[in-house]
Amino acid sequence: MEKILDIKKLTKKYGDKVILNEISFSLEKGEVCGLLGPNGAGKTTTMKIIVDLLEKTSGEIIYDKDTKIAYLQDVPQFYEFYTIKEYLEFLLSLNKKNFDRVDDILGLVGLKNEKDKEIKKLSRGLRQRVGIAASIINEPDILILDEPVSALDPIGRKEIFDLIQKLKGKMSIIFSSHILSDVERVCDQIIIINKGNILLNKKISEIALNNNILTIDFINEEDINKFKKQYKGDITTNGNTIEIKTDDINNTELEIFNILANKKINVNSISIKKNNLEEIFVSEVNKNE
Length: 289
Prior knowledge:
Largest sheet: 6 strands, mixed
Number of domains: 2
Strand content: 25-35%
Distance between the termini: 34 Å
Helix content: 25-40%
Radius of gyration: 24 Å
CATH architecture of the largest domain: 3-Layer(aba) Sandwich
């Protein structure tokens, strides 16, 4: 696919303190990129440098000169005496654009029924929607959202991720987060950053999110050894417990049950867990601690 943004060896220092350490990544047209990391990882610094709110120490930020980039900070600021509709019309008037676009944007972000409410009276979730509406009112090519769900309850977070899903394909999106629920549903690309270093940068399709880990707790070591002589796949052993990773849980379970039955091996328990983004995130961050 076509790159719309290319970051090369981006570095930010304050004196001797390195905030970003030669990070490199690219964003493809129409895709959603999740920039994930704990607080203080360098996510906001990266975003602010892209939109020229911070000066980089070194590195390159490459995009076409006609590319429009919009940025929404984690706590949006507004002229709060406006109603939602008035505020969006005000933003359009600054660029001498037709107000016809307002109703389309209100519908897209789910604010048609609230359009005449004053912004100062809105809930945190509705304010976030107004912020996104204001960010996309001038049809940016790239939308950058800094922690768009950090202060929202589970329902509010779901609504914002549903909105990001709606915008997917209409523009390229980068959003930062340290809350991982629903991230894998909307993202095409995952970047994990910690202490100014990129730890993981992969397409979601390349990450083994759907791998299953089958855990068997044996009664004793003798039974483990019996099982290991029969099972030909890779096994991780921890005491009387083994773990087997598999992409085909049904066939693996069938093979295991046949071995246990044929060799008359008793076990305490068999359980299955899915490898998910949260586990990958924690694993990568812990490696960097």
